[in-house]
């Protein structure tokens, strides 16, 4: 990928948000720097990957995916590309498609992304959003369409510079028997981040699982939610939020709306406060609008239990090692696939906060 | 292996142990008996070094070294291992990961040891999450087998365990303590025993575990005082026949 060399971003910056610079283990790569698309290539037949503007112009019928999963907001103005990814009917690539939205010079980055997974297809998209230490606003609009019996696994990692304001807007429509999985990881929220992706489970048996892993260092503020409308019988949703505060503030929201009978939905909000000055505000909401619903939630905010730390210490782990193992487990770091550089960073953060709390 | 001298221990500002003396030689298994609330758990937790159990007087000598003020993990690394009566849940950490952590730098075959205790099916479950009483006990022992300590502290290993699994646990404890020796052509059991360096202190309320693990000596703890030491079977029979009330008579 020669384009990458011409970019402002370094390989390390890309790797931090889960982007493979050589595209190893990926079936396609899309990179947009500010408003410029610097890489866009796919090696998988049956999968389309294009800059959104080009897709709207060249691929017939794609305009119907614009502003269907989200309500149009005319105040947002004209967007500067973004990616369009479509997995055709029944196509199931082994490797994920990766995309990176990078801000190098500041100002406004406004993208409109569309991911379409047609019936019985299966797609994993890894998106890394990152910036240099500049002042700017990222407006990321994403619309996802998951067809009948299809699966979309969307992993998003945010590493923003301290002066970035990020405003992602995400909407997903899931048809009968479709599965939408969203994993979100944020350790560097920038100056301000507020988002709450919304999924609409339209067809019976559709499933959504949204999982967020949030780590707030001092000065950080993040308002991260997730919302699922269960609009057909037999749909299922699970929202899991795991937040660790090292002194920063996290607002963790979750909102489940059961609109039809025989739905099943669960919400789990857990917060760990590791250092003084941190705030974790869990706001779980359950809204039942039909009979025969099963909606539950679990919320817990607290510190690491001394009992757990000592339990691991009795097995020969130092206090630091024990704390790190507990925090990593708490955040489900292994399941969610945290990029190696972020994993190291997390370990360093944990051991620092450990020393300070002593 | 372990020498406890004049140990006084406080839990939440209340003295629970009022001066305990106990000597556990190398290659011996001792049973610690006593009614609920007599301080049995406090004693082994203090030996292991948990913060909540504050030593106000006395010393703990382990392998000839004064470990009274040594942190918990260093005692573990010196060769102490404890099976908890009610271990905490550690969310997100898989039992398999924990067993690997127990082994430290040594290589262990996790699957093989898990198999000896019928633990394969919970290797991929979160540590102790939703475990039954029996599953917890088995998981604790698998961890100890990976850790391979020289001093094994067991807190009521049989409580909440059904009969079938008590046999399993008994076998595992004997293996841990190298008490399941079989003769080899090149070496007799006697020769192998001579090389054995494992000791254990086993808390038992009912004494059931002693049907499977042979104890060399028994101690009775009443209200924070070690009032009696002797043949474990004899002590147990007395308790079975006359209850701990008879033991309490020895509290002067």
Written account of the structure:
The complex is a heterodimer of chains A (358) and B (252). Chain A is of the alpha/beta class and 358 residues long. Helices cover 16% and strands 47% of the residues of chain A. Chain A has two domains: 2-303; 304-358, no CATH class. Chain A has helices at 2-5, 11-16, 52-58, 306-313, 319-330, 333-336, 340-357, and strands spanning 28-33, 36-42, 47-51, 83-87, 97-103, 107-117, 122-131, 136-146, 151-160, 164-174, 179-189, 192-195, 198-201, 207-216, 221-224, 227-230, 236-245, 249-258, 264-273, 279-288, 294-302. In chain A, the strands form two sheets. A ten-stranded mixed beta sheet of chain A has the order 2-1-5-7-9-11-14-17-19-21. In chain A, helix 4 (306-313) crosses helix 5. Chain A starts with a helix and ends with a helix. Chain B is of the alpha/beta class and 252 residues long. Chain B has one domain (2-84, 148-248): Rossmann fold. In chain B, 34% of the residues lie in helices and 28% in strands. In chain B, a hairpin with a 2-residue loop joins strand 1 (2-11) and strand 2. In chain B, helix 3 packs parallel to helix 5 and helix 5 (133-147) runs parallel beside helix 6 (163-176). The model of chain B has no long low-confidence stretch (mean pLDDT 92).
List keywords for this structure.
heterodimer, A: 358 residues, alpha/beta, 2 domains, 10-stranded mixed beta sheet, 6-stranded parallel β-barrel, 7 helices, 16% helix, B: 252 residues, Rossmann fold, 6-stranded mixed beta sheet, 4-stranded antiparallel beta sheet, 34% helix
Provide a brief overview of the structure.
The complex is a heterodimer of chains A (358) and B (252). Chain A is 16% helix and 47% strand.
Question: What value does the average pLDDT of chain A take?
Answer: 92
Q: Major sheet of chain B, described briefly?
A: 6 strands, mixed
> Please, what is the CATH homologous superfamily of chain B?
P-loop containing nucleotide triphosphate hydrolases
Rg from Cα of chain A:
20 Å
């Amino acid at each position: 990928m020669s384009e990458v060399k011409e970019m402002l971003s370094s390989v390390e910056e890309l790797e931090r948000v889960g982007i493979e610079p050589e595209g190893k283990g990926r079936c396609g790569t899309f990179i947009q720097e500010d408003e410029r698309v610097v890489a866009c290539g796919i090696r998988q037949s049956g999968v389309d990957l294009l800059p959104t503007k080009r897709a709207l112009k060249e691929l017939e019928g794609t305009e119907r995916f614009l502003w269907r999963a989200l309500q149009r907001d005319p105040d947002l103005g004209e967007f500067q590309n973004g990616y369009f990814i479509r997995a055709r009917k029944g196509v199931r690539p082994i490797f994920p498609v990766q995309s990176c939205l990078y801000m190098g010079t500041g100002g406004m980055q406004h993208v409109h992304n569309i991911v379409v997974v047609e019936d019985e297809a299966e797609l994993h998209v890894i998106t890394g959003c990152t910036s240099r230490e500049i002042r700017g606003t990222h407006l990321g609009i994403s619309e996802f369409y998951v067809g009948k019996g299809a699966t979309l696994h969307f992993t998003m990692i945010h590493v923003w510079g301290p002066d970035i304001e990020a405003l992602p807007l995400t909407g997903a429509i899931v048809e009968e028997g479709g599965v939408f999985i969203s994993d979100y990881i944020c350790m560097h929220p920038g100056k301000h981040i507020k988002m709450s992706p919304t999924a609409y489970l339209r067809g019976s048996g559709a499933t959504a699982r949204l999982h967020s892993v949030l780590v707030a260092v001092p000065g950080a503020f993040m308002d991260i939610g997730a919302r699922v409308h269960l609009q057909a019988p037999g749909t299922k949703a699970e929202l899991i939020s795991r937040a660790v505060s090292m002194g920063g503030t996290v607002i963790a929201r979750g909102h489940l709306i059961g609109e039809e009978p025989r739905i099943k939905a669960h919400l789990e909000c857990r917060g760990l406060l590791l250092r003084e000055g941190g705030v974790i505000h869990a706001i779980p909401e359950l809204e039942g609008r039909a009979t025969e619903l099963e909606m539950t939630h679990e919320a817990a905010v607290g510190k690491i239990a001394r009992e757990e730390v000592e339990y691991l210490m009795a097995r020969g782990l130092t206090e630091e090692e024990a704390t790190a193992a507990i925090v990593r487990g708490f955040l489900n770091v292994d399941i969610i696939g945290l990029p190696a550089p972020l994993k190291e960073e997390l370990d360093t953060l944990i051991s620092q906060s450990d020393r300070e709390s002593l | 292996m372990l020498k406890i001298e004049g140990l006084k221990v406080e839990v939440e500002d209340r003295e629970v142990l009022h001066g305990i003396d106990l000597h556990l030689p190398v290659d011996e298994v001792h049973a610690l008996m006593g009614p609920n609330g007599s301080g049995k758990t406090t004693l082994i937790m203090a030996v292991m070094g948990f913060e909540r159990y504050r030593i106000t007087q006395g010393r703990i000598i382990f392998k000839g070294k004064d470990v009274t003020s040594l942190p918990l993990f260093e005692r573990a690394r010196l060769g102490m291992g404890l099976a908890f009566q009610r271990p905490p849940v550690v969310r997100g950490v898989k039992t398999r990961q924990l067993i690997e952590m127990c082994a430290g730098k040594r290589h262990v075959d996790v699957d093989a040891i898990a198999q000896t205790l019928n633990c394969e099916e919970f290797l991929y479950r979160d540590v102790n999450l939703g475990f039954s009483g029996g599953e917890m006990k088995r998981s604790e022992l698998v961890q100890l087998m990976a850790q391979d300590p020289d001093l094994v502290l067991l807190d009521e290993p049989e409580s909440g365990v059904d009969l079938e699994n008590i046999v399993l646990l008994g076998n595992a404890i004997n293996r841990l303590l190298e008490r399941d020796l079989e003769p080899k052509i090149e070496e007799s059991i006697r020769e192998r025993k001579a090389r054995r360096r494992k000791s254990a202190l086993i808390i038992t309320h009912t004494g059931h575990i002693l049907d499977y693990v042979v104890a060399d000596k028994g101690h009775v703890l009443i209200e924070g005082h070690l009032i009696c030491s002797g043949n474990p079977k004899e002590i147990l029979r007395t308790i079975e026949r006359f209850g701990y009330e008879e033991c309490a008579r020895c509290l002067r």
